[in-house]
Specification:
Number of strands: 3
Distance between the termini: 9 Å
Shape: globular
Strand order of the largest sheet: 1-3-2
Number of helices: 8
Low-confidence stretches: none
Mean pLDDT: 88
Length: 146
């Protein structure tokens, strides 16, 4: 898990931002908003050498969209070359480990040192931080402990 943290922190340092949209642009990962079923917030795919992130057009423009983009960027960076939609639909492959890794990547990216410091100084709970960042509370808990 330390490698995931190092990857997220390293990308934020390399691009001078923890904004997943700016990092996607810098890495030439195409981000598209699409009309997806309500149950699908976003997905990453790799087609003919092109990395693409699709975000549900129904996501709020704020933190939710940012959190989903960070999660999908985690797939692009940590699992590049995999097409999860194909694997899930055609192979029965269960991607639980990859989903956890993408969640942690998003947490480490979005919970930068300043955010963590500010939240701790204000005595915020993991639930409050999760609500503010649109990250799952279990991810916030894990990132704060590690």
């Amino acid at each position: 898990m330390e490698a995931i943290k190092n990857t997220a922190v390293g990308l934020a340092a390399r691009f001078g931002t923890s904004d997943p949209f700016e990092i996607c642009e810098g890495l030439d990962v195409c981000v598209l908003r699409a009309a997806l079923p309500q149950t699908i917030r976003g997905f990453y795919t790799f087609i003919m050498g092109i990395q693409m992130i699709y975000l549900n057009a129904g996501l709020s423009d704020g933190q939710e969209r940012r959190a989903v983009c960070a999660h999908e960027l985690g797939h692009a960076v940590l699992h590049s070359g995999h097409n999860f939609m194909f694997l899930k639909e055609n192979t029965g492959f269960i991607a639980a480990r990859f989903e956890r890794e993408a969640d942690l990547f998003a947490g480490y990216l979005l919970l930068d040192e300043q955010t963590v410091y500010d939240c701790r100084c204000n005595g915020w709970t993991a639930g409050q931080i999760a609500h503010m960042t649109a990250l799952p509370e279990r991810v916030v808990d894990y990132c704060f402990k590690n």
